[in-house]
Amino acid sequence: MAYHHILRQNSSFNLIKSSLTHNHFFYCSGICKSLLCHRLEFKSLQNAVKFISTNNSKASDLDLARYDFIKNIYENFKSPIIVLSQKRAFEIARKIIADHREIENCFREEVATIEKNYREEIAMIKKNYREEIAMIKKNSWEEIATVEKKSWEEIATVEKKSREEVATIEKKSWEEIATVEKNSREVIATIEKNSMEEVATIGATIGKKFREEVAMIEKRLQAAQNDYRDLIIRFMRVRGNFNLRGAIEWVREQISKGNYGDYSLLSIPLAITQSSTATNVQNKSSESTTPPDTSPSDQRLVQLMENTTFSENLLKICEINKMTESHVRTCIAGLYHQLSKQVHGYNKQEIAIDSRFFASNEILALGFIFRIYNISYLYYDESGQLNNFPFKI
Fold first, then answer.
1. Quick one: pLDDT band at residue 85, thresholds 50, 70, 90?
2. Residues 6+ apart with CB under 8 A from 30
3. Where is this chain compositionally biased, Low complexity type (predicted)?
4. 393 in a structural domain
5. For 122, 166, 261, 377, which has the most beta carbons within 10 A of its beta carbon?
6. Average pLDDT of the chain?
7. Count of domains forming the chain
């Protein structure tokens, strides 16, 4: 492979590759001033085909010079050229590179100095900028404080003036209100004085008429209630659900046989000793406002109440339901006679206790007796609706 190192005066020293046919390279590197520093003298060549051989190829430089690509190089340079050996070209290239490195180091130092100066200048500008900003903020805050102070003073002045005006208006308004109230009271007193007799007369007339109408309405209401009660009694009799007397007849028959009831059927604990609680139960208030019944006593039911177990459990039932035992006992004694006054059947299979026809004492007595004798029954509340029994037994 043939290499030719060509230096052209006043030109760069660059690598020039020959055509692929000849496979030659021409190296040109550096700059002319670098060559001058190494005291290289360039003289014009009279004959452009005079070259120094730089390779070991078989082709001579003289032959190579005759080829077109060498001629083209010469024609493109437009000035004399010198052909150097490879060794000499490398020496010159190394010296040029060293010069370049020296220039580069010098350039880097200059750049570092410029950058340092630039950074110092930027730092100074930033410092001055921050100082200016701080000064502007300080001046701004002082101006704001001055404006706020002035504003608050103006607001205080306006508020003071407003309060004075409001106080004046309120004072004037209260005086006007007092005058109007005084005049109104005088007018009202005059009207009341003049109309008092008329009002009294009208009131007496209206009151009398109202009492008469109320009495008439109460009379009609009582009659309607009686009619309603009769209708209910008839309806219950037709349904066969009002057979309380039949159930009590069956209870009386069981008492005559010595059966005083099964108290294990009660849902509450067994009775406590009567001596420890009888006095307290007697003093408890009853939910019923019905006075003790004065109906004749039934001997069988009185016999039931004389039973110790019955008495103790009755006392416990009254205590739990906050009922007066003496009132309940009186109801039990006269229960048979009370039920005999109403229309009842004798079918024990369908028994109904209707709270619209019995007091609380009577309802508790019936429920207690039916429970210990295992008699099934229905309970109707004040509105005539089927409901749960209201007492704990």
1. low
2. 12, 13, 92, 93, 96, 97, 99, 100
3. 285-298
4. no
5. 261
6. 74
7. 2
